[in-house]
Amino acid sequence: GAAATTSAEAPAQGESSATQRLFNTLLVTFAAVFMGYVCARLRWIVQERGDMKGMGFFVGQIAFPLLIFNTVATAKLGSVDLGTLLACSLGKAVVMAVTWLLTFVAYKPSRSRAQRFLTATVFSFFAIASNDFAVGFPIVEALYGQELDMDIYIAGNALVGSVVFVPIVMVFFAIGKVMERSGSEVVADEHSPGTMQACLCTMVVMVRDILLNPVIIMTILGFVYKGFFGFTLVDHGMDHHLPSLLGELVTLVTSPFGMCALFLTGTNLNGFKISLWPILLVSMKIVLCAYASYFFAGFLIDRDKPPLHRLILENFTWLYGMIPSSSAPLIFAQQYDPDSAQVVATAIMAGLVLAGPMMFGSALFLEAASVDMASTITNVQYTMAIVSLACGGTFLALLAVTYSTWDFACPNRVLILAFGCTLVVYEALMLLMNPDLRPESCMAYNEDPTKAFLSILIGWVQNSSQFMVISMEVLCVLRVRAPGGVPQSSVLSFGLVALCLGLGIVLSIVTIPNTVTEMCSTVGTEQKYINVWPNAIWIYILLAGMVALGIRYTVLAGGHHKDQGDLWARAEPASPAANPEDPEEPLPCSSGEAAPSEPADAGESGPTGGDGLKHVSKGLIFGQVFRLCIRVVNTSQVIASQRIMGSFAQMLVVEGILEHGQLPILLGLMMVDASFPQEFQRAWSEFPRLWERQRRDHGDTSSEPSVPEPLPLDFTRTLTVVRF
């Protein structure tokens, strides 16, 4: 209950804690979804045969509307903070807009505008379609118990979704269908009587469907009952109950809702295929939506409220933002854009998997909301530094093996090489700064972070790595602006690296390194006042600049490739054989020629350049933009002097994991790239010849048996190639 968000006190003997209740709720919730998924996969339930049609009607048209009616009619609306609902709604609106734009310009851009419009609408709806009642209600009840009436905020957000967001989505679907039926990108004569009449009929049907929606009707009836028959409600402290006979009937009908809704979600998850876009959608829904809601809560929640109550509401906006998506987007995808159904189904399943640990971690932080969690952040950063250094060692080993195939005249590849090496140095320096290993480093930082030598070094490599990613994005823009015109020169490549290192030194003088202040706050010495405004200004400039470059890239790509805009990431592009009119973007390290699809003969040694690992660079670009969005929110909380506790502590932990997890991400991007596994395979096959050559160069002509050929490594078959 309140202990979940206000204190770290242990629960009374015999009473389970909020964390235990939440764990049990999450386990039961996922078990219900998994049960439906298994039944569908084993074909015990066949959706196409209409096996779940009756249950779907009961859940969507009877139980869910009655649940809305009961929540509205029995809630004590006077205690509702409208700023909390507005913060959650604005967070959804921002994430919805960003997801729509990103999908429209980047997801399979060679398709028609109508298809991209429909897909963007489906994906953007996924990013805001929280499973409020089937997942949200039991989680909130488990976390807050009966001591705080937070159910009304779940119901309020569900109501806003039904009244505001769903109609907007339906309007977009109607527009997309009109574009699709027109058979062209733009209706031939938008002022013709037939076109205007079709649009008018569509609007009339849409308004009728909204007004006759059972959720809207039962919401109105709930307010009517509260206004005219409120005297019949029974007061139960935090809320009211319906009178005996009506209350028992509503309880009987709505009791199966939770299990049925979760089971239906599982039966809809037929297709499951991991790729870039499901991960992107889940990140938008679970992570970015939570950050955006919490960001707006800091401005919109009434500041006259008691600090404890305000903290509870802010923590709720964070928790609400990470509630996973329902199966409604999948139903819309199957109806309006069947090609995207598999992506949405995968994203729903992945969202459930990610949201579970996120919400459980949130419960741990909220249960200790009055405790400073800086030590937890220190431990997380220490662990991530160890993991990153292990991945960094693997990265350097891969570079050593593929050294003969590495094209140092390719600026993109050299930037990736320098980026990885810089991150290795970065994580090593972070270990030296960790107070558990070297507390004197943090003591020097706390005295004056602008003069601490180790702090300046960390800021240097941190900022240099950011400039390297910006340089990759600039190369993407130049490559589209002048296909084949980016010079290939080792002088240019290493000159770019030197420029990034130089700019990093300059920036490290006026800013402090990210994530270090929170880590060093655990050391006993008092921290000197740290001015974070230079960091905030730089973050805003950097984010705005990268977004502007992305927009410029999209516009140029669209102009050169006939609607083939590609914003940082090309997801699952069609193969040339399947879609010959979809030409690829010019390769970073060739004069317009495509990289060979098969590895070169083992006897042909020397650098190839390949495609310049362009998909790796695009993944790094998107990752940096995503981290910057998170950093904007966290920096605003630091400026507001927010203590490291509750939801803010978890937000810093997420930022730390993403910041210090760049090396594992880089390694993963390289291993799933289209060209690097082939280069590694070819370089690996060259090892025996290099060994023999070394022996001959040293005059060893003995008749010792030669080194056996290494086992063939066919990464192209064992790894899933992900294109951005």
Automatic annotation (TrEMBL):
This is Uncharacterized protein. The chain crosses the membrane at residues 22-42, 54-72, 84-105, 117-140, 152-175, 210-233, 245-264, 276-296, 316-333, 340-360, 380-402, 414-433, 490-512, 532-555. InterPro entries: mTOR-Rac_regulators. GO terms for biological process: regulation of signaling. Keywords: Membrane, Transmembrane, Transmembrane helix. It comes from the Eukaryota. Residues 573-610 are annotated as: Disordered.
